[in-house]
Amino acid sequence: MKRRILLIGVILFIGLNLMLIYIDDNGKVNRVSYINEWVSSFEADMVEQMDAIGVLSAQTEEHVYFDKSLGSFEEFLVNEGDDVAIGDPLYAYRVHDYYETETKLISEMEKVKEEISSIELAINDMQMYQIPTIPADPTSNFNITEDHFELQVELPDSTKEAEVLRQQYLVDLEKELAQKNAEVLYIESQLETLRANSDMITVGSPYEGKIQDLSVSLEDPVLTIQSEELNVTGELTEDQHKKVKTGFKANVTLNEEEMHGTVSDISHSPKAIDVNKESIYSFQVSLNDEVDQTNIYPGYHTDVSIILEESIGTTVLKDSAVFMDSIWKMSEDGKLTKQIVETGLSMDNLIEITNGIEMGEMVAQNPDKQFRNGAKFITPLKIKQLTWDSLGLDKSNWKKYLVTGLISR
After folding, report:
1. In this structure, what are the phi and psi dihedrals at residue 342, rounded to the nearest 5 degrees?
2. What tens digit of pLDDT does each residue of 377-394 get?
3. Measured between alpha carbons, how far is residue 42 from residues 32, 170, 305, 354, 401 in Å?
């Protein structure tokens, strides 16, 4: 009987205390939080990336045509697989009318030179354009319009991304300018051979690369020239297509060797349209100039990681220390305090903290329901980590310190 009374008394005592704690809205009952471990924030590079499969392909594939109205084809001066430089002879033909051919070639050259002037002005406009320091809106996009040339530039929200995109446009314009200059040399070489031989023209190559295809039937294009420079072609799903933009950095891995590049083109038309299948879009990555492209060839398969967003040298915490965008740390008066933080990228069990904590600050790991704002806290004593040197005590007076501690309690 006594044991039953004792048991009931213990249960009532515990239950009453729990009830008092539960209804203690004014915080009159002292609460103590138990913190098993503290961790500190530290510096790390955070990257959000998207993986895809790619294949190496020629950066450009150019076609050469033969205008049968100008004359009769004589012969090819190259074979499939030959490497050609700009100006190297490709084929020869005999003209029907000297003066008509000369007039047409001169007209074509003047047209190309006008296009060159327009591209040069567009490059100058792009170089002079100042990117807004505030987030872009539709009104900050702009058009470059010159005679024979028009370029619409859509600026992204980020100033950094806008600068990357501007540099990409400049690279593309420089390539187009180089191509037009090559076309001028191509036409000039035809004029020279025409004037030297009266009725025979040798057509020089307007491109540098490898002869990929040669049409013996003289069906246009009579020649296809692939560039020696390679890029990576891959595919994106619908969800991936929404996230990727031109100008994004990309890392390409081939045989465990990593190469760096930039997303240079994204198709906005799917390969096929089918109600019952997911749409697939192609993209291209241009490899950086410093990439060694020897001993790698079109057709080699690669892994591609596209960098969607990155924060270099940012403040991070283990994800076990962050709960619902908040952390727990020690206040100046030695109590537990809840701190709301702003988070960014997540990667490998780490979370970027963009606001609310300083580098190297200590926070409680594994936030628990028993954590209370403003509560006192206790942590486990880790005996193995203690030494007399770490305590910094005078060994001869340790008894004095012990007695002082007991009395103060």
Report:
1. -105, 130
2. 556 555 555 565 655 555
3. 28, 38, 26, 12, 36
Half-sphere exposure of 402 (CA within 13 A, CB side): 5
Phi/psi at 158 (5° precision): -80, 135
Helix crossing, 98-128 with 159-197: angle to 10°? Answer: 160
- Interval 312-338 mean pLDDT: 83
pTM greater than 0.85 (yes/no): no
* pLDDT greater at residue 402 or residue 76: 76
Both structure tokens of 144: 């470059």
Q: What is the pLDDT of residues 96-119, one digit of tens each?
A: 888 888 888 899 899 999 999 999
Reduced to 3 states (helix: H, G, I; strand: E, B; else coil), residue 295 is: coil
Residues 274-283 pLDDT 10s:
888 899 999 9
DSSP state for residue 370 in the 8-state scheme = T
At residue 169, the pLDDT reads 80
- Please count the residues of the chain: 409
Q: Which tens digit of pLDDT belongs to each residue from 229-261?
A: 899 999 999 999 999 998 899 999 998 899 999
CA distance 66 to 222: 7
Residue partners of 308: CB distance under 8 A and separation at least 6: 48, 49, 50, 243, 244, 248
**Spatial separation of the C-alpha atoms in residues 159 and 132, rounded to whole Å:** 7
How many angstroms separate the CA atoms of 380 and 109, rounded? 84
Domains of the chain by start residue, with CATH: 33-44+313-404 (2.40.420.20), 48-55+232-310 (2.40.30.170), 61-226 (no CATH)
Q: Which residue has the tokens 């084809």?
A: 73
Identify the H or E element spanning 336.
Answer: strand 336-340
In whole angstroms, how far apart are CA 236 and each of 278, 283, 301, 302, 342? 10, 7, 16, 15, 31
Residue pair 378/30 in contact by the 8 Å Cβ criterion = no
Q: How far apart are CA 76 and CA 90, in angstroms?
A: 6
| Number of helices followed by number of strands (H, E) in the chain | 6, 23
Residue type, 91: Y
Report the C-alpha gap between 44 and 52 in whole angstroms.
Answer: 25
First-last CA distance in the chain:
40
